[in-house]
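Lecture 7 notes: from sequence to structure.
We start with the chain below.
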Amino acid sequence: MRPRLHRVSPWDRNPLLRPADRLQAACRLLAALVVLASIPVAVMLGVSDAAAAHARNESENATKTAVTATIVTEPAALAVPVGPTVVSQPREATVIWTAYSRNRLTQVTVPATAHRGDTVTQWIDSSGGVTAAPHSAFDAVAEGFDLGFSIVAATGCGATVLVWAVNRAVTRRHSAEWDREWQHLAPGPGSPPSEQSRR
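Predicted C-alpha cells for the same chain:
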C-alpha cells in the first residue's frame, strides 16, 4: 500500500484524481514548504534584532546612574475601581535625592514594606532626571525571540488561511458537481428518463 502522502500528492498518477484535488494537494504542500522556509529566515532576523537591541540597551545603560533616594512621604496605595471590584495599585511615595548638586523630588513606586525615612535606589539619566532601571541581557534576547516567533506565526496563519480558502472552494465545487450528477441520474417527476436510466 502506498503512503497516504503519496496518494494525495499533486504528482500522483491516479486517474481518479480531479484537477481540483491536485490543486488542493499542491496548496497544502506549498503552505508547508513556506512555513518551513520561514523558520531559518525568522531565526536570522531574530538574531540580528537581538544583537541590535543589545547594542542599543548597552548604550542606554551607559547613561544611567543609581542614586540613593530618601522617602519623604508615607507610602500609600491608590485603590482603583474596576467593575464591581476595587484593585489596589502599587504603593507610591515622594522621594528626594541629590544629583549634580541639586535636590530633586519625584513620585515613584516603592516596596510594600517601605516607610517614610527609608531609602530606595533610584535610577537617573545623564541630566539627572528619573529613568527606568537598566535593561538586562535577557531583554534583548526576548525582543529577538518575539520578532522571530511573530514571523513564523504570521507565516503559519497566512498559510492556514490559504489552505482553508482552497479547501472551501474545492469542497463547494465538488458539491456542485455532485448535485449536477445526481440530478442527471435521478430526474424529478415527469422528466424524461436519461439514457443511462433506460439502459
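Points to note: The longest strand covers residues 85-99. The chain is about 50% helix and 20% strand.
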